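$ ./design --mode recover --in tokens.txt
reading tokens...
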């Protein structure tokens, strides 16, 4: 258990043998647990990730997603790819979409903690999370181009929204791999930490996020990306509806009252920290 106080999950979540899941209060830590295969995503692993995200305990408010071992995730388990026919391949890709949608459009924000290889489907799962924290060892690649295949786990939709279509095109055509510093520069990584510090930083962020009003988490996760896909006029209209819904929750009213009565913290600059540089994006 990398964190003191975290208790191993029980029930459905405890039965998933390719994941290690533990929980401390509102924060759930989900680790990909196939380090001998560099956490390559097999059919069983993708199914278990889906099961985990659609069965999060009611009291969970934030999830930390990390990979066991030196690499976050080596992407698709290539040993399972060769025997699939065309329909099987389409259905396989749709299964990945369902799983990564369950992450991106689930109930609670997910923070990915990245180290070593974040490649292929590993970058696709990281892109479906809401915040990415990286160790200096993290590196990013899309070897699909070199393997003669294409992304199939939502990468063509999510990755350009982080780094831009031109950078993704370059990665796929030339096999370009970039490091954690460029990952932050290109908008894939929001926090780049010192060595061995990303999990702690991820946990700190998860605890902060878990303290937010659930409606705010919902609005950020569900309204924000949809508004980004809408025309400006539709986006502004959706924003008005979402902001009215959020402002009318009892929790928003009590938080606003607390500020007006001097009981809530003011907005403050973060203290300079050696642990993290926040990306300007
Ligand atoms: C794997 C996989 C895998 C490792 N599928 N078995 N992804 C890739 O093209 C990345 C392929 N992997 C690598 O380039 C390297 O393994 C790593 C850079 C990630 C790590 O290198 P290293 O030296 O630490 O490990 P290794 O010795 O290469 O691998 C250890 C074992 O993991 C080895 O198995 P073993 O039985 O010989 O010990 C590897 O075969 C196995 N392994 N990666 C299967 N990916 C929905 S579409 C998504 C499309 C994609 O994701 S394409 C990208 C696929």
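writing sequence...
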């Amino acid at each position: 258990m990398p964190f003191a106080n975290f208790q191993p999950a029980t029930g459905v979540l405890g039965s998933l043998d390719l994941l290690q899941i533990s929980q401390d209060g509102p924060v759930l830590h989900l680790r990909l647990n196939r380090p001998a295969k560099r956490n390559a995503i097999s059919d069983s692993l993708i199914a278990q990730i889906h099961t985990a995200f659609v069965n999060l305990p009611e009291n969970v408010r934030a999830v930390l997603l990390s990979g066991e071992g030196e690499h976050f995730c080596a992407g698709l388990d290539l040993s399972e790819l060769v025997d699939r026919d065309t329909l099987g391949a389409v259905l396989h890709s749709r299964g990945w979409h369902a799983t990564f949608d369950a992450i991106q459009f689930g109930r609670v924000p997910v923070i990915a903690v990245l180290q070593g290889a974040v490649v292929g489907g590993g970058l696709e799962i990281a892109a479906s999370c809401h915040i990415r924290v990286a160790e200096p060892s993290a590196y990013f690649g899309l070897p699909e181009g070199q393997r003669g295949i294409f992304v199939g786990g939502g990468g063509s939709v999510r990755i350009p929204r982080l780094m831009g279509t031109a950078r993704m095109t370059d990665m796929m055509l030339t096999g370009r791999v970039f490091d954690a510093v460029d990952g932050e520069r290109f908008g894939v990584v929001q926090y780049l930490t010192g060595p061995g510090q990303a999990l702690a930083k991820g946990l700190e962020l998860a605890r902060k996020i878990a303290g937010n009003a659930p409606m705010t988490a919902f609005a950020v996760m569900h309204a924000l990306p949809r508004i980004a896909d809408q025309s400006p006029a539709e986006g502004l209209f959706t924003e008005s509806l979402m902001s009215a819904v959020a402002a009318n929750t009892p929790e928003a009213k009590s938080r606003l009252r607390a500020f007006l009565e001097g009981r809530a913290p003011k907005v403050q600059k973060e203290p300079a920290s050696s642990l993290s540089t926040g990306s300007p994006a």
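exit 0
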